[in-house]
Hints:
This protein has 50 residues and is mainly alpha-helical. Helix content is 68%, strand content 0%. 0% of the residues are buried.
Amino acid sequence: MKTKITKEEALAKFLAAKEKKRKCLVSLEQTMKQAYKQRTGKEAETFFAL
């Protein structure tokens, strides 16, 4: 028994997922920059993730 979700519910779910992704990327960026600094001794200038 599937029920359709409303436009507001879909938007809320989408925005929640977008915020979760942003938080995960911030955490990943910090981790990767620390690992790069430990490995090379230099500060990372850029960070790229999809």
